[in-house]
Amino acid sequence: MSVFRLNTVLEDEGISPGDVSLILHTTTIPRLRRLLPHLAGERPELFEAYNSVHSAQATATLLNRPFAATFVRIENGNLLFVGLGKVSAVELPKAEIYSDPRFEELEFVFGATDTSPGKHIQAGGSQFRFSMLPLEAMQQFRGRLQIAAPAGRAYVRVASNLDAEIVALSAENMLISPAPHWHEFIVSGQMMRSLPANWAARLKEWRGVYLIVDERDGARYVGSAYGGENLLGRWREHVAGERGVTRELAKRDPLTFRFSILQLLAPDAEPDEVIKLEHSWMDRLHTREFGLNA
């Protein structure tokens, strides 16, 4: 059986594998790992910031090669091709690099504690900031080409040394993170302001009873959604302003809320049925006596 190699594709594009660093984003931060494909596909300005700073070992590899190919881990464990770029770098004070507001959004919305601005600014000193000027080469493989994740901890490799096998080439762009099953649909208030488009579309289809937990103290609120945009519309209403929208939630910052679904209902469920189930969940979770339901 023929084995297809990434290096062969690079050579077909007229690029020597020895001139290419492979940036293999395999973060162990659960929320960030799940959403990196979304950032690469739908929030390129944030992904560009995340991809601009690297560890000392990775920096040394990147500085020594003119090109870099970037990959992100996807749910099947493989690494998905994001793009090939020409590398440029400039050494700057960390305080200047991490004052970019994109790093704050990366940390608080997507969980990117590895690029936390506070931690790096406090450390002081300087660091290289990279930019990857996109090349036309291999654009047809963006979001489609997958390689197997290699063993070892180093996340920046040299293409000629790794000689990665291409394990899949999908027909469609996979830089769109699939919406989780409703049982696992748990999102923060910050993330509700930057929700992947296909996640938003799924929430818009669903009526149901939901739970809000304030991450500061664990206080709970049960609500229901059955309007024109169903759960999507109701959850977005909760985070639209600087304070919550009910009497008790109005005392709180919605960016500390965590949303989840208690019970999913049919898209045509009658409002009376939804409200009845909402009150049942309030009773079972005691959110009138000990929570935030008035």
Give your account of this protein's structure.
It is a single chain. It is built from 12 helices and 11 strands. With 294 residues, the protein is of the alpha+beta class. The chain folds into 2 domains: 164 residues, no CATH class; 104 residues, 3-Layer(aba) Sandwich (GIY-YIG endonuclease). The model has no long low-confidence stretch (mean pLDDT 94).
* Rg over alpha carbons: 22 Å
Share in helix: 25-40%
Count of the separate structural domains: 2
Annotation field: number of helices: 12
Total E-strand runs: 11
> H/E order of the elements?
HEHHHEEHHHEEEHEEHHEEHEH
Main sheet specs: 7 strands, mixed
Query: In what range is the share of β-strand residues?
Result: 15-25%
Poorly predicted runs: none
Q: In terms of structural class, how would the helical and strand content be classed?
A: alpha+beta
Global morphology: elongated
Quote the average pLDDT: 94
First and last CA, distance: 66 Å
Write the layout of secondary structure elements.
Blueprint: H1 6-12, E1 20-25, H2 30-42, H3 44-50, H4 56-63, E2 67-73, E3 79-93, H5 94-97, H6 101-110, H7 117-123, E4 126-134, E5 145-147, E6 156-158, H8 159-162, E7 166-169, E8 187-188, H9 189-192, H10 197-205, E9 207-214, E10 220-225, H11 230-239, E11 257-265, H12 271-285
Parallel strand pairs: 1-2
Antiparallel strand pairs: 1-6, 2-3, 3-4, 3-5, 5-7, 8-11, 9-10, 9-11
